[in-house]
Amino acid sequence: MAAAYAGQCTDLFGYGTPGKFYDGAYNRQQHDAHTYGLDLQITAKPTSQLTATLQLGVSQTKVDKSNADLAAALSSFTGNQLPLAPHVSASALVQYRIPLGEGALNLEGNANYKSHVFFDVYNDPYVQQDGYWIGNVRASYEFAKHWEIGAFVNNVANKEYYSDKFDPTSTFGFIRGIVGTPRMAGVEFNWRY
Fold this sequence. Notes:
Layout: E1 2-13, E2 30-44, E3 50-66, E4 88-100, E5 103-114, E6 117-118, E7 128-129, E8 132-143, E9 147-154, E10 162-166, H1 169-172, E11 176-179, E12 184-191
Antiparallel strand pairs: 1-2, 2-3, 3-4, 4-5, 5-8, 6-7, 8-9, 9-12, 10-11
């Protein structure tokens, strides 16, 4: 499966960190931008028990014009990458199902990749995240038609990454960030109707 997309946006609201610009100008940013890309997905089922899915997304997002360009005190955003818009994202999923007694044992592993992103429209080098992979595993047993018990480990390698960052250095003197979810293990008991 493949899908291509393209879009043009006008008057996007751009948020910023207080103190980056004088007189609260960060509240008045509006941008025109474009985005285009391609999503691909391939699923293979080499046996009745094994399924593998690969996904790839490639995108380009840029600010075409910004009202911030009109104010001498503000830096130009034209040509900058939009926030939280990786150029490449990818995932791989492998599932293996083993009939066992009255139910089935399901084994699953997946890995997800996100390339470099900026967290603001300024493309501030201090407010960005390099590309990273996150891997997860899960095993479960389905029984009695609707019941499932499972165990999982998310972020198996305990990769440190940020899901968001912002730069209040002019106010507080340091970069702030929201750390992504660390390694997490758990047990699930599910009923599906």
